[in-house]
Amino acid sequence: MDEQRGIVLVVDDDPRVARVYAEQLRQQHTVRVAYSGEEALESLDDDVEVVLLDRRMPDLTGDEVLERIRDRGLTCQVAMVTAVEPDFDIIEMAFDDYLFKPVTGEQLLSTVDHLLKRATYDNALQEFFAVASKRAALEAEKSHSVLQRSEEFAELTARFEHLQAELGESLQELDDEEAFDLVLSDRF
Predict the structure, then answer these.
(1) Using an 8 Å Cβ cutoff, are 9 and 52 in contact?
(2) Phi, psi of 99 (to 5 degrees)
(3) Phi, psi (rounded to 5 degrees) for 183
């Protein structure tokens, strides 16, 4: 699957975790590794297609690295890979997916493949998937009653529903594998 191969930057301040992720991904992708936020920004260029970014790091947090990535105008896909329980602050963050540690090699490979595919979609579809990821992360970690009381979550859900209606045909045109993966991911 050479067309699926991409350049992935793994960022985690725990060298063991970063090495394990890198080894799991090297089966199918070219991998760069950074052990800090500063090192990540130094390693990042236009060739990097996917960044797997830890949120909790000592020098620059993953949140700060994400902000700098977007400020630089880089269009890489970013997945936050973290043990940090998501709160409503993630709604405003410009990531594309959110994974909870611990993650398996299969989850990493699947996420990278999905993000590479999403990068080929138009901006509206990319936004839809990012919003869906945030919604799914919050639904996985917050109680129904907390979500019901949250104005931010209500706005996120309204945005999700608006995009879903707007993109109806485009979503139906996704190939069978992508549609199957979306159903399995329990995001819709």
Answers:
(1) yes
(2) -115, 140
(3) -65, -45
**Dist CA 28 CA 25 (whole Å):** 6
Number of domains composing the chain: 1
Q: What is the DSSP letter of 86?
A: P
Instruction: Give the helix ranges, DSSP H, for 12-167.
Output: 15-25, 37-43, 62-71, 105-118, 123-141, 144-149, 151-166
What CATH number is given to the structural domain containing 38? 3.40.50.2300
End-to-end Cα distance, the chain: 27
To the question of pTM greater than 0.85 for the whole model, the response is: yes
Map residue 79 onto helix, strand or coil.
strand
Q: How far apart are CA 25 and CA 105, in angstroms?
A: 7
User: Edge-to-edge strand order for the sheet containing 50-53?
Assistant: 30-34, 7-11, 50-53, 77-82, 97-100
Report d(CA 22, CA 27) in Å as an integer: 9
User: Could you report the per-residue pLDDT of 92-148, keeping only the tens digit for each?
Assistant: 999 999 999 999 999 999 999 999 999 988 898 899 999 999 999 999 999 999 999
Phi, psi of 26 (to 5 degrees): -60, -15
Domain with 143 in it: 2-184
